[in-house]
Amino acid sequence: MFLKRGFAVSLVFVFVTVFAFDFPGISFASGNENTVLVLYSKTNEEQMKDIRILETMVGQFKNDYKMMEDEEADQANLNDYEYVIYLGAGKKTLSHHMKSAIDDYKGAFYAIGHNAEQFKERLPWLDVRGEALVNQVALPKNDLVQDLSEDRIVYEVSADDAEVSGFGYKADGSGSLPLVVNEEDDYYFSGQNLYNPFGEVVTESFRLFLNDGSKGTVKYLRLEDVHPMADPELLREQAEYLKKENIPYMVAVIPVYENKDKIVHLSDSPKLVDTLRYMQENGASIIMHGYKHQYRSSETGEGFEFWDAENDRPIYQPAKDKAKQRSDFSTAEEYDEFVKKGEKYEKGYMENAIRSGVEELVAHDLYPIAFEAPHYAISQQGYRIVSKHFSSYVGQLQLTDSTWQSEYAPMHESKPDFLHGMILYPETLGYIEQGDAKAMEKLNAKIETGSKYSQSYLSAFYHPYLGLDGLKEVVKSLNEVNGDWLDLKQKDNLVQVKDIRIQTKDGGYQVEKPFLASDYERNLFIKKSLIWAIPLVLFILPAASLLVIRRRE
């Protein structure tokens, strides 16, 4: 009996060992795989904006982090984590268990915003005295003083002998107060929201808190809103200039132009297609900027596509349908049912747009390697849908489904969980607005500020219809900053739609697709074949007739 049992145990051991080594998807690692735990408190859904901002900030440093609401804290052993970050997004009395867990935690701790005064044992050096308004932030070590677009509320704190690395200047001109304070590995940020530049200040302090010594500036330029009605000659002129300057860049392409009853595809603009191919072969990375960049009756490039801007909500209905509101339903249950059906419609609508866009670009040998939502507006479900097809996302992020006017860009590339595996390459500088005489002055101010942070993206987009001279000014300003130009093709990007697979690595493309991957490509092939066939037939018929006549003679 003993021998049989020992033999059985040996078999189990061998079985487990084989599975552990032969099946990499199965892990038998002990302990928690996450090094950072982010705990947060909220009292309403509006506060999800700051929670998502924090998630985006942490995603710049760590992929292995976990988000958890304070009410779930009793389900986690905090000491499984190397770092714990707490965000008080809303004022709240914390549970005894939550406070005890923080007090007993052995690792590095960072508190942000509300409720920090409840961690008295953990932060005995922190004294929260009240509130104040600030209109500037300062990071002395970075030689940086930055104006706020509006006054912000912060907690007025004193911290005894703790180190102060960030300051705020009071709006009433009465002096400065601490924003970022720490004693050894325990930190506190006194701001009551995380919109930039507060987010940038906290990000800078995260470098010390998370022991990340990365430094450097990344620059990128994106040519925006290139659709089938764009001027190919103007675009070619800019492409040749960027090639001459040896600057890699992105081109945000919209495959279809639509305005009222006018619909133009790339197949109707062969000169533009030739220019886009030239760009792709000479430094450009193609970005899919939606499919039509419009939803209702707006012109391509002006309208939204993946957000119902008129009603400030996700795409729940076909564009031609009268938009139903909450007031159209007698009960909350009926409205919830409408929303569920709307989410199903949105999924089909977006899947169709993404598939069609990739298929049409690929049919012209144009290979998109990242996605950008028109006006950066897209629902949380939208991010899930896009992530099934693209590994890279470009621009800024919409934080919640409550409004599209809640966008955020971190300082550096990030991989927040709500992007479902996609990497964000952020746009941080904005664009040159037509008719704004101070546009370059504003851009240069942003460049100067951004370049003072330890690690940052200096990234802008430019509309080609503004001409070559304006583009040269933007490039000149960016070239004055030390840093590397981002060549997205050098990153690992993956795009998958039905039978089409596009992958980049070290600047090269790997494209897998059937000979004719879509109805669009099939029709394009027939059209091209006819163009070649008709002259050929016209030549062969007279030649054959002449040959027959000569033989009869």
List the helices and strands and how they pair.
Layout: H1 2-22, E1 36-41, H2 48-58, E2 65-69, E3 83-88, H3 96-104, E4 108-113, E5 127-139, E6 144-158, E7 163-170, E8 176-183, E9 186-189, H4 198-209, E10 216-226, H5 232-244, E11 249-253, E12 256-259, E13 262-265, H6 270-281, E14 284-288, H7 332-363, E15 368-371, H8 380-387, E16 392-395, E17 397-398, E18 407-408, E19 423-426, E20 430-431, H9 439-450, E21 455-462, H10 468-479, E22 484-485, E23 493-497, E24 500-505, E25 508-512, H11 519-552
Parallel strand pairs: 1-2, 1-3, 3-4, 4-9, 10-11, 10-21, 10-22, 11-14, 14-15, 16-19, 20-21
Antiparallel strand pairs: 5-6, 5-7, 7-8, 8-9, 12-13, 17-18, 23-24, 24-25
Helix pairs in contact: 2-4, 5-6, 7-8, 9-10
Structure description:
The chain is α/β, with parallel strands linked by helices and 553 residues long. 32% of the residues lie in helices and 26% in strands. It is built from 11 helices and 25 strands. The protein has a 9-stranded mixed sheet, covered by helices on one side. Strands 10, 11, 14, 15, 20, 21 and 22 form a 7-stranded parallel sheet that branches. Strand 23 (493-497) and strand 24 (500-505) form a beta hairpin. Helix 2 (48-58) packs across helix 4 (198-209) and helix 5 (232-244) packs parallel to helix 6. The termini are far apart. The model is unreliable at 1-32 (pLDDT under 50).
